[in-house]
Design a protein that fits this description.
One of its GO terms (biological process) is sphingosine biosynthetic process. Keywords: ATP-binding, Kinase, Lipid metabolism, Membrane, Mitochondrion, Mitochondrion inner membrane, Nucleotide-binding, Transferase. GO terms for molecular function: acylglycerol kinase activity; ATP binding; ATP-dependent diacylglycerol kinase activity; ceramide kinase activity. Its main location: mitochondrion. It is built from 14 helices and 18 strands. It is an alpha+beta fold. Strand 5 and strand 6 form a beta hairpin. The chain is globular, with a radius of gyration of 25 Å. The protein starts with a helix and ends with a helix.
């Protein structure tokens, strides 16, 4: 071993990357047949993510693995906020789409993808997520949870090369005038969200800044209730999964017999049954915070219905409980408290006051709050997921 190699191993995360590169060579050594094409991947990279460190993190930890695997890589770097949505309008078909950034980059990419006129076909492209941002909420659903940044990036990159995918639900969030926005995790509106957006102003208080932000907010306004109207439809039963194995085709004599039988005795078509009108439930809410989420925090868990989850936080807590709950939600924004009232639905309409509605957080990105329709698109996109994380989620409660 040379001195150079020793220094590389001693570097934090260097050993993990070295092992990943060796493992990746297995993909690169595979022979490509004369009729077989090299797999192509388009990477949407936000170099400004993680305070400008994303480009360096990608080049050092993810790019070498992708190149060694024999995949033809096309890297497209964004220059400004919102550009990823525009890039998706003109992107050509690819074998796989890789998002290298954080929550904001991922939200922009899926929004641009699902706004395309050919989104029905394009949404079948498998998507990989390499967590390079300050917030990488979806990473916990796809990759092993670790505090080691390099290990997280290399693990995510390897899961893309291994090719195992997982279907994820999508929320379509649409106002009266604006184009729809799409989310993988959820929408958040209320006082906890508002306080969380101001925490960084109290940086000089160090570890007490989160509690201080919530306490100071109660001096300006208390109680911090939000009022809105919700109408929603119940969840839709989930259709059965298709059989893993394709059924064998009946023999020729049986097919001829069935055709003759249908010719001489054609089946009688029954008139379509009258569809029952949709029964909308309506609810007036007074809450500290409302969240509308997917089940993508654990996409492996089997559920009988396709649904989104409406969580209404109670508005009857005291100041001390408000500070404690807000501190927890600052770390996990979409996790509701034990006293929240939850309802499952397939689609909901959220009607807000005309003035002073504030802002939403949609997958940790800020949007102006307005009346919206939130509709579930079940299993709309497929994401690369590590086998180890899938097994962990399958055994989780």
């Amino acid at each position: 071993t040379t001195c150079c190699e020793k220094r590389h191993v001693r570097k934090p995360g260097g050993l993990k990357l070295t092992v990943a590169l060796v493992y990746t060579q297995e993909f690169g050594r595979k022979l490509i047949g004369p009729q077989e094409e090299v797999k192509k991947a388009t990477v949407i990279l936000n170099p400004a993510a993680s305070r400008g460190k994303a480009n360096s993190l990608f080049e050092k930890n993810a790019a070498p693995i992708l190149h060694l695997a024999g995949v033809e890589i096309k890297v497209v770097k964004t220059d400004y906020e919102g550009q990823a949505k525009k890039l998706m309008e003109f992107m050509e078909q690819t074998d796989m789409l890789i998002v290298a950034g954080g929550d904001g980059t991922l939200q922009e990419v899926i929004t641009g993808l699902l706004r395309r006129t050919d989104e029905e076909a394009f949404s079948k492209t498998p998507i990989g997520f390499i967590p390079l941002g300050s917030h990488n909420s979806l990473s916990q659903s796809l990759h092993l949870v670790t505090d080691n940044r390099v290990k997280c990036i290399t693990s995510a990159t390897l899961s893309i090369l291994k090719g195992e995918t997982l279907p994820l639900d999508v929320l379509q969030i649409k106002g009266d005038k604006e184009q729809p926005v799409f989310a993988l995790l959820g929408l958040r509106w209320g006082s906890f969200r508002d306080v969380a957006s101001s925490i960084s102003k109290y940086w000089y208080l160090g570890p007490l800044k989160t509690q201080a932000a919530h306490w100071f907010s109660t001096l300006w306004e208390w109680p911090q209730t939000r009022h809105a109207s919700l109408t929603y439809l119940p969840p839709v039963p989930r259709p059965p999964d298709l059989p893993a194995e394709k059924l064998s085709r009946p023999n020729l004599l049986y097919r001829i017999y069935r055709r003759l039988q249908n010719y001489w005795n054609p089946p009688v078509e029954e008139p379509p049954a009258d569809e029952e009108p949709a029964h909308w439930e309506e609810k007036q809410i007074s809450t500290l915070e409302l969240t509308i989420c997917t089940h993508n925090r654990n996409p492996v868990k089997r559920r009988p219905d396709d649904s989104l989850v409406l969580s209404v936080e109670p508005d009857t807590v005291g100041i001390g409980q408000f500070i404690r709950d807000g501190t927890k939600k600052a770390e996990e924004p979409l996790v509701c408290t034990d006293n929240a009232v939850q309802t499952e639905a397939s689609v909901c309409h959220l009607n807000l006051p005309r003035e002073g509605a504030g802002f939403y957080d949609i997958d940790n990105e800020e949007f102006e709050a307005m009346p919206v329709e939130v509709r579930l698109l079940p299993r709309k996109l497929r994401f690369f997921c590590s086998k180890e994380r899938r097994e962990e989620l399958a055994h989780a409660n």
